[in-house]
Amino acid sequence: MGDRPISRILAAVSATALLAAACGQAAAPSAAPTVAATTAPTTAPTTAPTPTKAPAAYKQVGTINITPKDTASFDVGIVDPSTHTYYLADRTTKGVDIIQNEKYVKTVSGMVGAAAKSDDSGPNGLILVPDKDQIWAGDGDSTVKVVDLKTDTIVGTITTGGKHRADEGAYDPKDHVVMIANDAEDTPFVTFISSTDQKVLGKLDFQGAGGLEESFFDSTNGVFWLSIPTSKTNKEGSVVQVDPKSMKVTKTYVEKGCESNGIEPGPNNVLLLVCNSDAIKDGFKASTQFMDLKSGNVLGSVPAGGGDLAVYDSSTGDFLVADSNMTSDGTKAGKAAPALVVIDGAKMSLLAQIPTAKSSHSIAIDTSNHHIYVPVPNKGIWIFAAQ
């Protein structure tokens, strides 16, 4: 995921479940319902006035440096708030950086690292599996590396059977299933793996998809949600619901002018869509959009985009987005203007654009102290907090 050239394959899209069986036969999914996203309402509903407070101002409060040298290439970062530990997929050190209490501790090495073909770099996505005290990392050789957090060593390697990297994924703790995407294949697919015995349970093909991006597990409904930036059927992007038991797509929401990379859930069934830089290149004005997770309707948007990942800060009610490919005017003609974008979640309004750097596409939050972590190439990890 993130700042790298990925060919967007424009072919017919259909989701086909490849369920693992002893004989290796595949079961095709039934057609999933598709919902076209609607535009934002022109008139806001009338509500009783409520007391308001001034929006929080986020400021850089520190920098974490990696020893002996700060990373130049990285991908997903995640935080275990119970231990105040931040993990970063570091392609420069070819491993997972461990940062505890905002101090660099060590790197679990043994992964692919930066490759000549950027789509095959690794590590990429990181998935916390807390009940096993593990992190699962998508690697550049189409494998998932299982890191034991008690010993900080790789204790398992699971092949997804692709030719290119395993990227991002999510964890279903109820059914003990990890879903991880191979986004750079000719036919992108996701693999379902048991966290209990590390066995592949099945696969799901996305015919014609131009990549697969962020996913998360919806514990309320017991499903995964996955971003598909583009396809021939849904050229401007879509978000799909995936059932971890049937391993099929059960719902599709069509995007408009977004081509999302990141998807971040907020309160009241609101889903933030991080519209990526390809949407700007394709002539759409930069935007970050709000979708109703129940209906697929677009509730609103703000004029900032070109991002990859986002987080939600429940202490302020703000979404923060790593818009590393934002431009000065929000168009492809504008100058590069990478920023950490702050959005009021309740009002769906743009609050601030804090300058960062090119390729600062990763972001994570420690929900216990609400510190925000944004890696900056060759300059360490910048720490932001609401003032």
Fold blueprint:
Blueprint: E1 14-19, E2 34-36, E3 58-64, E4 74-80, E5 85-90, E6 95-100, E7 103-109, E8 126-129, E9 134-138, E10 143-148, E11 153-159, E12 169-172, E13 177-182, E14 189-194, E15 200-207, E16 215-218, E17 223-228, E18 238-243, E19 248-254, E20 260-265, E21 270-275, H1 277-281, E22 288-292, E23 298-302, E24 310-313, E25 318-323, E26 339-344, E27 349-355, E28 364-366, E29 371-376, E30 380-386
Parallel strand pairs: 2-19
Antiparallel strand pairs: 1-15, 3-30, 4-5, 5-6, 6-7, 8-9, 9-10, 10-11, 12-13, 13-14, 14-15, 16-17, 17-18, 18-19, 20-21, 21-22, 22-23, 24-25, 25-26, 26-27, 28-29, 29-30
Task: Summarize, please.
This protein is mostly beta strands and 387 residues long. 1% of the residues lie in helices and 44% in strands.
